[in-house]
Design brief:
This protein has 389 residues and is of the alpha/beta class. It folds into two domains: 125 residues, P-loop containing nucleotide triphosphate hydrolases (Rossmann fold), CATH 3.40.50; 254 residues, no CATH class. 45% of the residues lie in helices and 16% in strands. It has a six-stranded mixed β-sheet with strand order 8-9-10-11-13-12. Helix 7 packs across helix 12, helix 8 crosses helix 12 and helix 10 packs across helix 11. The chain is globular and about 65 Å long. The mean pLDDT is 93.
């Protein structure tokens, strides 16, 4: 029987295949339960879960036979068995002209990247896979995708598991995975930190303020946030700092990467409840940012996202360079943005030197003249994808 997830075409598959054609190995990183294993198993039957001791023994016993054959070898949670990396380096160096030999999967970015930099630098490509994106959920209304987020087992295609799945997912991370990955906080403190970061979603990060609430120093809070970021839960959006005479905000903004996790933490169960929350605009903003950044990554175009804000209130939600063009993108949770809103956004976009400007709203008809416009999110994604074709 084929699961619903196996029937969903993942955008990143084409890029994974292309990188495997060019490199001996590819590392595919992303949060737990994002669908990495399902994608990998569709590419190869030679699969090993290195979190399991029995699987490590099986890989050890079959190593010579695997190196002699021509099939792709998938190593899941590769960072859990560091001893495998010298073996990978030796196998790759023995025949550098062979491509598409290994696919490494990982759900802890810093641990895996450290092993790669120490053992496999220059020998593999690194790709990041998000949970399901709007473009992969053809039959799911946009507001439902926004509400439930993208985790395949958490109700992304259908609502029955939301939000209990998300709460169980975060509880398991706090109690088991994050401590095992090195987070020194007690699970109860981690769970409070998760709720605190949900409460400040989309705001300028103030580690001292959060630390006071948790009874921790701001240094400790920032170190804990590093773990949440490394587990693909949190996105820290740095400020865009052009050379202007205006005073600029220089601290990062913090967003939850998956809005389903955010809404579960904040006790929201339906779109009607969501639309009545005072923080709904920040939730929509984070959703738009995530969909843009992660859709571009799934298409093979990694961008460096920033935000921009002056001390007198001129701001742009998302600023990045794509090819030779600078993009400025603002999100508004409205179906009829006022002309004054676009004018102020346009003035802020002038300050960052943007030559492409999109105000993303929940409009029924998108208007774009080739340089600027007011568009719906799906149309914005199509316009950006055209830039990288």
């Amino acid at each position: 029987m084929i699961s619903n997830l196996q029937m969903i075409s993942r955008l990143i598959t084409r890029v994974v295949r292309a990188r495997l054609a060019d490199y001996p190995a590819v590392a595919l990183v992303g949060p737990r339960q994002a669908g990495k294993t399902t994608l990998a198993r569709a590419l190869s039957t030679e699969y090993f879960d290195l979190e399991q001791p029995a699987e490590r023994v099986r890989l050890d016993l079959q190593w010579d036979a695997l190196m002699a054959q021509r099939r792709l070898v998938v190593l899941d949670e590769a960072q859990e068995w560091p001893e495998v990396f010298p073996r990978l380096r030796g196998a790759i160096d023995a025949d550098r002209r062979r491509s598409g030999r290994f696919l490494l999967l990982g759900s802890v970015s810093p641990a895996l990247i450290r092993q790669i930099s120490e053992s496999l630098a220059g020998r593999l490509a690194v790709l990041e896979m998000a949970p399901l994106l709007v473009a992969e959920l053809d039959d799911t209304p946009l507001r439902e995708a926004w509400l439930r987020g993208g985790f395949p087992e958490g109700g992304a295609p259908e609502p029955k598991r939301f939000p209990q799945w998300q709460l169980d997912y975060l509880s398991l991370l706090a109690q088991r995975d994050l401590p095992r990955w090195g987070l020194p906080a007690k699970p109860a403190v981690t769970e409070r930190l998760l709720r605190m970061t949900a409460a400040v979603h989309g705001q300028i990060w103030n580690a001292s303020q959060v630390g006071q609430s948790l009874g921790l120093t701001y240094h400790t809070v920032n170190s804990y946030l590093d773990f949440l970021e490394g587990a693909f839960l949190i996105r820290r959006l740095p400020p865009w700092l052009p050379n202007l005479k205006k005073r600029l905000v220089r601290s990062p903004r913090v967003y939850w990467r998956d809005t389903g996790l955010l809404h579960a933490l904040l006790g929201v169960r339906t779109t009607d409840e969501l639309l009545h929350e005072p923080w709904v605009g920040a939730s929509w903003e984070g959703f738009v940012i995530g969909q843009i950044v992660e859709t571009l990554a799934a298409r093979g175009a990694t961008v460096m996202p920033h935000y921009f804000r002056t001390s007198d209130g001129y701001e742009v939600d998302l600023v990045f360079k794509l090819g030779r063009r600078h993009w400025a993108i603002e999100s508004k949770l409205t179906s009829s943005p006022a002309s004054q809103e676009f004018d102020r956004f346009n003035a802020a976009a002038d300050l960052v030197g943007a030559d492409r400007r999109l105000l993303i709203a929940q409009v029924n008809k998108s208007v774009f003249n080739g340089e600027r416009g007011v568009v719906a999110l799906p149309e914005a994604l199509r316009l950006l994808e055209k830039e990288i074709e």
